Amino acid sequence: MEKLNFEFKGDATNVANMERYLRNQFFFLGLKTPIRKEQSKPLIQRSKSLEMDTIRQWISELYARDYREYQYVAIELADKNIKKFQPDDIIFLKQLVAQKSWWDSVDSLRAVFGKYIKLHPAEKKTVFELFYKSTNMWERRTSINLQLMEKENTDIAMLTKSILLDQTTDEFFIQKAIGWSLRQYGKTNPEWVFAFLSGHQLSSLAVKEATKHLANGEHFRHKLS
Fold this sequence. Notes:
Layout: H1 15-21, H2 33-47, H3 52-64, H4 68-80, H5 87-94, H6 103-119, H7 124-131, H8 137-145, H9 156-165, H10 172-186, H11 190-199, H12 204-210, H13 217-224
Helix pairs in contact: 2-4, 3-4, 4-6, 6-8, 7-8, 8-10, 10-11, 10-12, 12-13
C-alpha cells in the first residue's frame, strides 16, 4: 500500500477569520478554497490510479488530522473517486459524518453520498437507511438531504419519512435541512411541496426555508407572522 506523503502549506493571515467563521470549533491552516485545491491537486490526481484500500487509508489519515483543511481534502478524495466506491466503501465513509461534525463537513459528505445514489439508484434505500433514525442528528440531517440532487428521481416516501421523523425536533440544523429538502424538491414538483406544507405543521424555520422560491409561498409565511 502506498504511503500518504502530503502536507499543506498554510497562510497564517487567514487563520483567525476562518476559525471564527466556524465558531472556533476547529483549527485552520488558513487556506482558502482555490489555494487549498491547487495544493491538493497532485494528491487527487495520484489517487485516481490507486486501489480503494489505499484511498480509504488516506481518507482516514487525513480526516484524523487536526486542521480543518485536511478533512476537506479527505472528502474531496472520496468525491473524486466516487465511481470506484462499492457498498462497503459507503459504510466506511458513513462513519465520518459523526466525526468532527459541523455543517461544512456533513453537507460535503452528503454530496458524495448523493453522487453515489445517482450512480447506483438501486442502492438508494440502503444508503438512506444508514442514516435514517440515527441517534446522531448530523446523520439524520444527511438522510433528510440525501436526495437534494435527485430532482424527478426523488423518492417521495423516503423524503416524507425523513422529514416527519424530525418534524418537531428542536434543532436548528435539522429544521434548516427540512426546509432545504423541500425547497430543492419544489424546483421539480412545487405542487407536491405546496400540498405537503398544507397538510403538515412544520416549524417556522422549515417553512421559511421551504418557501423561499415557491410560488404562493407567501401564503405560508403569512400564516407564521
